[in-house]
Design a protein that fits this description.
Layout: H1 3-8, H2 15-18, H3 29-41, E1 71-73, E2 80-84, E3 89-93, H4 94-112, H5 135-154, H6 157-162, H7 166-178, H8 188-192, E4 205-207, H9 216-224, H10 229-238, E5 241-243, E6 250-253, H11 258-264, H12 275-283, E7 284-286, H13 287-309, E8 312-317, E9 328-333, H14 339-344, H15 347-361, E10 364-366, H16 369-382, H17 385-396, E11 433-435
Antiparallel strand pairs: 1-7, 2-3, 4-6, 5-6, 8-9, 10-11
Helix pairs in contact: 4-11, 5-13, 13-17, 15-17, 16-17
C-alpha cells in the first residue's frame, strides 16, 4: 500500500484538503462550518506541545480565573513591563515580558549557531501587540447602546412619552431587551465573557504579526509550514508559552506552568500549594465585584444623554367636559438624573436590574427567578452587596459555555451546557434553568480560556 494511502486511513480528511485549508469569514454558513471543523480536527501540531485552542475549550483564557469568574487586569502599572520593539513599545504582565525576552534571546542564539533558519517569522521576534486597554472598546459599545435605544424610543411617540426619568428609561430598556435585537453587553462581566472583548486584554498574550484570524489559509502557508515552526512551538513551551492554534502568530503565557511560575516568583510570593490563588489575587480583579456600581453609572449616563439630546415630552390631549377647547399639546421637559437620585432608588431595585440584565447577557431564562432574587436579597440583608453579587455570578456562570461548539450540525438546536461546579463558596445547587442558545462565530481577534 502506498504511503499516502496508508496515512490517509488514519487521517480525518483528504491530504489535499489538509494542505489547503480554506476557512474564511467570507464563506457561506455551511461551507464555513465544514472548513472550520476540518482545520480544528487536522493534527497540525502532531508530536508538538499542545497549542492553545482559543476558539473552543480555551475560549476565555486569561479572561476568567480557575473557577470561571470574569477577571480584568488590575489598574496597577507596576504589574506591567515594557517590551521594546522596532515599531513601538508594548506592555504585558511583568513576568510574561521576562519570559518573552529570554525566548527571543534563545531563538536569536540558536539562529546565529545555524540550528534554525534566519529567513523565518519565528526568528528575531518583533511583537506588535501586547496588553489591550478594554475601556475604549466598552465605551464604544455603550455609545452604540445609547444610539440604538434612542432610535427605538423615538420611533413612536407613545414610547418616548413614557420615558420621564431614569426609572422609566430603565423600564423601557427591559422591553427593548426582550426583543433580542441587540446582543451587546452592558456590564463589565457581560463584556469580558463575550466576543466583544479581545483576549489581548489579559496581559498574557503577544501578537508577533498582524493577520486575520478568520483566514485559515495564511495560518498554514505562512506559519505552520514555516521552516522554524516545529522548533518554535517546542521552544515557546519550554519558556511557558502556548502557540495559538487559531493564530500561530500569537503566543500566550501559561501562568501556572513551571517556567512562568519561576518568572512570576521574581515579582510576587507564589504559594506552592495554591499558585493560581497567588496569581489571580495579585494581577486581576473579579469583574462581578464592581459590576453594579459600573452599571448604575452606565445606565444613568445613558439616560442623561437621552434627556439632554431629547429634552421635550409632548403629550397630546383631546377635548373633554373638563377641557372643551379641543385637542391640545402639553410640553414637559426631562431632567438629568444625579448620582444621588440613582442611589435613592435603593439597593433592592438595582440588584433586580443587575440580575435581569446579567441573565439577558448570558441568554438565560430562569424559571424560578423570583426565588433566586429573594435569595439574593436575603444574602444582601444578612451580609453585604458583594456577597449578593457573588451569588448572582455563581448562578449564571455555570451556563456560559457550549463545549461542543463546532462539532454539531448548524441546524441542530443546541441545549444549555453546564460546566460543573464553579462556585466561589459552597451554596445550594442551581435549580432548573433554560437558555436560548445560538452558535455564534468566534471573535476574529483570537482566543481566551475556560480553564487553566
Amino acid at each position: 500500500m502506498p504511503t499516502t494511502v496508508k496515512a490517509q486511513k488514519f487521517l480525518p480528511h483528504l491530504l489535499s484538503d489538509m494542505f489547503d485549508p480554506r476557512g474564511s469569514n467570507e464563506l457561506s454558513s455551511r461551507e464555513g462550518f465544514i472548513e472550520r471543523k476540518m482545520y480544528k480536527n487536522v493534527p497540525y501540531f502532531s508530536g508538538l506541545p499542545r497549542p492553545l485552542r482559543s476558539w473552543y475549550d480555551k475560549l476565555y483564557f486569561g479572561r476568567v480565573d480557575t473557577i470561571q469568574n470574569g477577571v480584568v487586569v488590575k489598574p496597577d502599572t507596576s504589574n506591567l513591563k515594557q517590551i521594546k520593539t522596532e515599531t513601538g513599545n508594548i506592555f504585558v504582565l511583568n513576568f510574561v515580558a521576562d519570559a518573552f525576552e529570554d525566548l527571543n534571546r534563545h531563538l536569536y542564539a540558536v539562529g546565529n549557531a545555524g540550528l534554525i533558519r534566519s529567513d523565518s517569522v519565528y526568528y528575531k521576534l518583533n511583537p506588535i501587540n501586547g496588553i489591550l486597554d478594554y475601556n475604549p472598546s466598552l465605551t464604544d459599545i455603550i455609545k452604540g447602546w445609547e444610539v440604538r435605544f434612542a432610535t427605538r424610543l423615538n420611533s413612536r411617540r407613545q414610547l418616548t412619552n413614557r420615558v420621564v426619568d431614569l426609572k422609566s428609561y430603565i423600564s423601557e430598556l427591559f422591553s427593548y431587551l426582550e426583543s433580542d435585537v441587540n446582543s451587546m453587553p452592558l456590564t463589565l462581566t457581560g463584556y469580558v465573557m463575550s466576543n466583544y472583548s479581545s483576549p489581548m486584554i489579559s496581559g498574557l498574550s503577544l501578537e508577533l504579526q498582524t493577520n486575520n484570524y478568520g483566514e485559515d489559509a495564511v495560518k498554514f502557508t505562512k506559519y505552520i509550514t514555516d521552516p522554524n515552526f516545529t522548533y518554535f512551538v517546542k521552544a515557546a513551551r519550554k519558556f511557558g508559552f502556548y502557540v495559538d492554534r487559531n493564530g500561530p502568530w500569537k503566543i500566550t503565557a501559561d501562568p501556572l506552568s513551571s517556567p512562568m511560575l519561576d518568572y512570576m516568583n521574581h515579582y510576587i510570593s507564589v504559594s506552592p500549594t495554591f499558585p493560581a490563588l497567588s496569581f489571580f489575587n495579585h494581577y486581576y480583579n473579579k469583574t462581578y465585584i464592581n459590576d453594579l456600581d459600573r452599571l448604575k453609572t452606565t445606565l444613568r449616563l445613558m439616560y442623561n444623554k437621552y434627556a439632554v439630546d431629547f429634552p421635550r415630552i409632548t403629550i397630546s390631549t383631546t377635548s373633554s367636559v373638563a377641557c372643551p377647547q379641543g385637542a391640545q399639546e402639553e410640553v414637559r421637559f426631562r431632567s438629568v438624573a444625579s448620582a444621588a437620585y440613582a442611589n435613592s432608588l435603593g439597593d433592592l431595585y438595582w440588584l433586580d436590574v443587575y440580575f435581569k440584565i446579567r441573565l439577558k447577557e448570558a441568554k438565560l431564562t430562569m424559571t424560578d427567578y423570583k426565588s433566586k432574587y429573594r435569595t439574593a436579597v436575603e444574602i444582601l440583608k444578612t451580609y453585604n452587596m458583594e456577597r449578593a453579587l457573588r451569588y448572582i455570578n455563581n448562578e449564571i456562570k455555570p451556563y456560559l459555555y457550549n463545549l461542543s461548539l463546532g462539532e454539531k450540525p448548524l441546524t441542530r438546536n443546541l441545549q444549555p451546557v453546564r460546566i460543573g461546579s464553579v462556585r466561589d463558596t459552597q451554596a445550594r445547587k442551581t435549580s432548573a434553568a433554560t437558555t436560548s442558545t445560538t452558535t455564534s462565530a468566534p471573535s476574529t481577534t483570537g482566543g481566551g480560556s475556560s480553564t487553566y
